[in-house]
Amino acid sequence: MTKNPTTELKERATRAIVAHAFFRLESALTISLVILLVFFLPQPFDWWRWWFWLVFGVLGEALIVVTSITDERTAQQVVAEMLRERYDPGEIKTLRYRDKVKQALAYREQIEQVITHSPAGVLRDHLYDSTAGIADWIGVIFGIAQRLDAHERDELLQHDAREVPLSIAELRQTLAREKDPAVREQIQAALTAKQTQLDALNALKSKMEQAQFRLEETVTSLGTVYSQFQLIQAQKLDSTSAQGLSASIREQVQGLQDILASMNEVYAQR
Fold this sequence. Notes:
disordered N terminus
C-alpha cells in the first residue's frame, strides 16, 4: 500500500531528528566521557561497578534524544535541512526556476518560525496541521521546476521545434511539384507524420508556457499563505481560520499535482 506523501515525510522527519540527536555534540561528548570513565575510573567507590557508567551513558543518550524530538527549534532546523536535501535547488540548472524553488523553501522556513513563536495551545496545533500540506506543495513546485528545466535544456527538442516546421514547408512544396501518384502518396504520409510531430511539439510548448505562469503564481500564493499565518498569529484568530487555511493548501496541492501530471503526459507524447 502506497503511503501518503505527508505521512511519509513525517516519518522521515522523525527518523532524521533521531539521527540528528545521536550526532549532536552533546551525544559525542557523552559517549566519549563514558568510555574514558570505564577505562580510567572504573571503580571510584567500593560499591561502584564499571557498568554503572554504561547505564548513566544510556540514560544520558536517551535524554538527548527526547530533548531533540521535543525541541521545536531543533526539529524545525532538521526538517528544513531534510527538505533542502530532498528538493535540492542545485539540481535545477536554469536560474529562474532554481530561484523559485529557493524562494518556496524560504517561505516554508519562515512559516515554521511563525508557528514556533506562537503560544502553545489549540490554535498553534491547528497551524501545525495546516503546514502538513506545505511540504507536498514544495515537492510539486520542485517537480514542475524540474520538468521546465529539462524542457528548456533539451537540445533535441529545441532542434525539432526549429526544424520540423521547415521540413513541413519543404514537403508541401515538393508535394505541389510532384506528379507521380505513388511518390505523392509517400510524400503525403511523411507530411502527415511531420504534422503530427509538430502538433505534439506545439501542445508541449503550450503546456510548458502555462506551467511557467503557474509556477510563478504558485510561489506567490505560498508567500500569501505566509502572510496569512502571520495575520492569524498577530490577531490571535480562532482555529476556524487555520482550518480554512489548511483546506486552501490542500486545494493548491491538488491543483499543482494535476498540472504536473498533465505536463508529464504531454511530454511523454511528444
